[in-house]
Amino acid sequence: MKNLIQQSVNDSITVKKEFFSDNIENIESCASIMAAALKKGRKILLFGNGGSAADCQHIAAEFVNRFRMERKPLAAIALTTDTSVITSISNDYSYEDIFSKQIQALGKKGDIALGISTSGNSPNIIKAVRQAKQMEILSVGFSGNNGKLKQLTDICFCVDCDTTARIQEVHILLAHILCDLTERIMFNE
């Protein structure tokens, strides 16, 4: 068991080191874009399935409440949380529409749509990103190393790994870094 534990830790560290080394400038740029949008009164709309849905809630909470510093709340909404909306859309239309219809209802030009899909191929994520593009909403994707999300989003962070757990571990660290940088940019720390 100890060897399995150490292997998981080593694998996670290796994947993170490679990802952040390859994406450091893109991360800095994305944080600047997020800060600029939030300064203009825009919002971040987050969406994903399963563990990625939980990450969306987590990230939205970091923006709305605070991450590291005491500051005013920042506008972020996890589109994964309203069960009445999600189930009614799924029932009346399809599961593929649960995020795209919410983007239609809540999104405005200048907002940021952040979709998370470890496969990069989740149909409801893809449809939501396409909807965001039609509305001139900047799209950011968090994915694994494959999938359509890479080609569809304005900014895509692709983790070069085939293990879902390692991809998700990078995604949450990436989200924390983006929150931290956005706060620092906006509130001059």
Distance between the termini: 43 Å
Count of strand segments: 5
Largest sheet geometry: 5 strands, parallel
User: What is the 3D shape?
Assistant: globular
Query: Count the helices. How many?
Result: 7
Subcellular location: Cytoplasm
Enzyme class: isomerase
Function: Catalyzes the isomerization of sedoheptulose 7-phosphate in D-glycero-D-manno-heptose 7-phosphate.
InterPro entries: GmhA/DiaA, Phosphoheptose_Isoase, SIS_dom, SIS_dom_sf, SIS_GmhA/DiaA_subfam
Give structural notes:
It holds the Pfam family SIS_2. This is Phosphoheptose isomerase. One of its GO terms (biological process) is carbohydrate metabolic process. Catalyzes the isomerization of sedoheptulose 7-phosphate in D-glycero-D-manno-heptose 7-phosphate. It is built from 7 helices and 5 strands; from the N terminus they run H-E-H-E-H-H-E-H-E-H-E-H. By secondary structure, the chain is α/β, with parallel strands linked by helices. It has a single domain, classed as Rossmann fold (3-Layer(aba) Sandwich), CATH 3.40.50.10490. A 5-stranded parallel beta sheet has the order 2-1-3-4-5, with helices on both faces. Strand 4, helix 6 and strand 5 (155-158) form a beta-alpha-beta unit. Helix 2 packs parallel to helix 7 (164-187) and helix 4 packs parallel to helix 5 (123-134). The radius of gyration is 16 Å and the shape is globular. The mean pLDDT is 97.
